[in-house]
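Q: Please design a sequence for this.
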């Protein structure tokens, strides 16, 4: 298994863990998403499908997989931007484990982007 595949899988796992916590924290209320849990879950169907498809393609080093690596890597930075910069709430996403997930997601996301770009350039 290539390092890019490993980083992509770690990044995806951290993103999914964050989304599990997002359901617990009722993120649809924090971000004012209409339709409550129903729309929140429906919005996650394409995200989960992209993650799974991306993992298959990244392992093959296909161009689609590498571009999905860049997209998913950038997605690894989004929880930090949303919950630590733009929509800061002291009562949400502030447990030690939540912070570990968010900050590890930045690291794995940036690593995924860098390795994807390197593979595209080669």
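A: Design:
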């Amino acid at each position: 298994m290539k390092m890019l595949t490993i980083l992509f899988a770690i990044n995806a796992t951290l993103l999914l863990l964050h989304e599990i916590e997002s359901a617990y924290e009722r993120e649809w209320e924090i971000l004012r998403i209409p339709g409550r849990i129903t729309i929140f879950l429906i919005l996650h169907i394409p995200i989960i499908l992209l993650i799974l498809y991306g993992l298959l393609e990244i392992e093959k080093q296909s161009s689609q997989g590498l571009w999905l690596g860049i997209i998913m890597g950038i997605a690894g930075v989004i929880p930090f931007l949303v919950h630590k910069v733009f929509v800061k709430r002291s009562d949400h996403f502030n447990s030690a484990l939540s912070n570990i997930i968010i900050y590890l997601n930045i690291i794995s996301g940036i690593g995924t982007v860098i390795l994807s770009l390197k593979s595209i350039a080669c």
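Q: Thanks. Anything notable?
A: Helices lie at 3-24, 27-30, 36-60, 63-75, 78-86, 96-121. The first helix runs from residue 3 to 24.
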